[in-house]
Write a structure and sequence with these properties.
Blueprint (H helix, E strand, L loop, with lengths): L3 E5 L6 E5 L3 H18 L25 H8 L4 E8 L12 E6 L3 E7 L6 E8 L7 H14 L1 E5 L4 E4 L3 H9 L7
Parallel strand pairs: 1-3
Antiparallel strand pairs: 2-7, 3-4, 4-5, 5-6, 7-8
Length: 181
């Protein structure tokens, strides 16, 4: 069984779970990035921007304790040690107040919580390389998103999915969501 989750600093938060109040802001960013791509396309090479906007409505305002996240996803998910990697970091750097919860048939939920009260301040998702969509894990994520009014924003694919909408969530994981405008 895997015991450590390694993530490169450049990939931290690529897929973020955020309050639904941030949707219009994230949709605006998606449209701006799509416009940039259209204006700068040369026919070859990489020209797309990767960008994660600041949240106008931070996750911490939902006051979700880490213990509640952990309890909700047990026993399908289990805890891992989280290690950050990257050119600007010493080898084996641990984030402060970090966590990682892993499900082999789904992926890893990871992020940060406040030390003083355990309230989540960041919640992100990383897929497995050869992910098999676990229906049980999908329903756990859906239930948590429904309870806390969360959405998923993928800064790489530029997709948003409301976690309370099971069909939309399933479309995201199957790669069938419509792209940005």
């Amino acid at each position: 069984m895997r015991q450590t989750f390694y993530i490169h600093e450049d990939l931290w938060g690529v897929v973020t779970l955020t309050p639904t109040e941030n949707k219009s802001q994230f949709d605006e960013v998606r449209a701006q990035l799509a416009q940039h791509d259209r204006e700068h396309w040369t026919g070859s090479g990489w020209n797309e921007l990767f960008f994660l906007p600041d949240e106008h409505f931070p996750l911490a305002r939902r006051a979700i304790p880490y213990s509640q996240l952990f309890d909700h996803f047990q026993p399908a998910f289990y805890g891992l040690r989280l290690i950050l990697e990257g050119d600007s970091l010493p080898t084996g750097t641990r984030a402060v107040n970090e966590f990682a919860l892993h499900c082999p048939d789904f992926g890893t939920l990871y992020g940060l919580h406040r030390k003083i009260d355990g309230i989540l301040t960041q919640l992100h998702f990383a897929e497995e390389d050869e992910m098999r969509l676990s229906e049980a894990a999908l329903h756990l994520l859906h239930g948590f998103g429904q309870q806390h009014r969360l959405m998923l924003f993928d800064g790489y694919l530029r997709e948003c999915a409301n976690l309370a909408n099971l069909q939309e969530l399933r479309q995201y994981f199957e790669g069938n969501l419509p792209g940005p405008a």
